[in-house]
Amino acid sequence: DLLILSRIELEEHIRPNNLISLEKIFNKLKDIHITNIEKNNIDLNINIDKHFDKIIGNEDRMLTVFSNLIDNSIKYSEKNKSIKVLTSKSVGKLVKPGVKISIIDEGIGIPQNQIVRITERFYRVDIEKSKKVGGTGLGLAIMKHIVTQHRGEFEIKSQLGKGTEFNIHIPSEL
């Protein structure tokens, strides 16, 4: 993960310029995470609006972003919960037209005073929980740098005990 992050930081000034499909990415992600989804009886509800399926980007990098977010949603949710993925028009976040991709879980949530820090390298909200579920503490730092490389924005909303919503805004035109 540290090597991936270093490579992304080196290439952050190079904007990807391919038109890619979010539906294709999330279909791959469902296959990648199916074991943990089934083991935890998670209802992964993917609703990609056909009008908001295409973004400008690098497919592998966006797969990394959304894989990290889905993985965290699974890790920090109790069994028998749901994760929703939605797309809609991005409003007020980007200079160019874009798509808002929302990943909404019913997990343990993040304290408000720590939301600003969770994209820092190695930062962990709950060290004990992190030790149990694993990971490097770099996933959200990677997400932040990839979104920046794509000239996008992100926002995080969370309530303790109720869940977290990640909104990623990515341009849909060059």
What are the SSEs and their pairings?
Blueprint: H1 2-10, E1 18-21, H2 22-39, E2 43-47, E3 54-57, H3 59-75, E4 82-89, E5 98-105, H4 127-133, H5 139-149, E6 153-159, E7 163-171
Helix pairs in contact: 1-5, 2-3, 3-5
Plain-language structure description:
With 174 residues, this protein is α+β, with helices and mostly antiparallel strands. It has a single domain, classed as Heat Shock Protein 90 (2-Layer Sandwich). 36% of the residues lie in helices and 26% in strands. The strands form two sheets. A five-stranded mixed sheet has the order 2-4-5-7-6, with helices on one face. Strand 4 and strand 5 form a beta hairpin. Helix 2 runs parallel beside helix 3. The chain is globular and about 40 Å long. It starts with a helix and ends with a strand. The mean pLDDT is 91.
Short description:
The chain is α+β, with helices and mostly antiparallel strands. Helix content is 36%, strand content 26%. The mean pLDDT is 91.
**CATH hierarchy: architecture:** 2-Layer Sandwich
The CATH topology comes to: Heat Shock Protein 90
Strand/helix succession: HEHEEHEEHHEE
Low-confidence stretches: none
Radius of gyration: 15 Å
Described by strand count, sense and barrel closure, the largest sheet is: 5 strands, mixed
Structural class: alpha+beta
Number of helices: 5
Number of domain modules: 1
Strand order within the widest beta sheet: 2-4-5-7-6
Q: How many angstroms does the end-to-end distance come to?
A: 29 Å
Shape: globular
Per DSSP, what share of the residues sits in E-state strands of 2 or more residues? Answer: 25-35%
Strands, total number = 7
Give the integer mean of the pLDDT values.
Answer: 91
CATH superfamily: Histidine kinase-like ATPase, C-terminal domain
Measured as a percent range, the helix fraction is 25-40%
CATH class: Alpha Beta
